[in-house]
Specification:
Strand content: 25-35%
Radius of gyration: 15 Å
Structural class: alpha/beta
Largest sheet: 6 strands, mixed
Order of helices and strands: EEEHEHHEEEEEEEEHEEH
Number of helices: 5
Number of domains: 1
Number of strands: 14
CATH topology: Metallo-beta-lactamase, Chain A
CATH class: Alpha Beta
Length: about 190
């Protein structure tokens, strides 16, 4: 498995292209913007775009879906039906799916938004805006913040310390670094 990071400069959001060489299959997490580079990485290596995983329904994480669906026919996974209407495979709660030949765990972590999902592939957690390096995600109330912090403790910080966090904005981090340095958890 190879993970390629792509920055959407318009929303300063991160998109991730994940390639499974053994299956010649790919998936994209949070396509805020689809770039020529992303398409080239898929096409030049003759990969099939199997799936798109959406961490939450904000435009800076979903805007590229319209481009992708004009070129490919991936399965679109999200917790919000509105992401792609009838083309959305709606995820609820926690579970596991197979995408691009990879086992993908998903977990509902509401707080930043009601539809926030975190995906785990191998030792990588794709957290969207739930958890960024050094801070928990933004919320619109103190109740939502408490809910988010509780969910992060239960579902994310319980993971192995070496687990890499690939956030929706900013640099990657690890569970160990967040436990040690994140002021939201002290």
């Amino acid at each position: 498995m190879k993970i390629y990071f792509h920055l959407n400069i318009e929303g300063f959001s991160n998109a991730y292209l994940i390639l499974n060489s053994a299956e010649k299959s790919a998936l994209i997490i949070d396509p805020g913007k689809i770039t020529t580079k992303m398409i080239e990485q898929i096409e030049q290596n003759k990969y099939k775009l199997d799936a798109v995983l959406i961490t939450h329904n904000h435009a800076s994480h979903t805007r590229g879906l319209s481009t992708l669906t004009k070129i490919y026919a991936p399965r679109i996974y999200a917790a919000d039906y509105e992401v792609a209407k009838n083309d959305t495979v709606v995820l609820k709660g926690d579970g596991m799916i197979k995408a691009a030949g990879l086992n993908v765990s998903y977990m509902s972590v509401p707080g930043h938004t009601a539809d926030s999902m975190v995906y785990k592939i191998g030792l990588c957690l794709f957290t969207g805006d739930v958890l960024l390096a050094g801070q928990a995600g933004n919320t619109n109330s103190s109740y939502a913040k408490k809910t988010l912090i509780t969910n992060i403790h239960a579902k994310i910080l319980s993971q192995h310390e070496n687990t890499v966090i690939m956030p929706g904005h900013g640099p990657p981090t690890t569970i160990g670094a967040e436990k040690q340095f994140n002021l939201d958890f002290s």
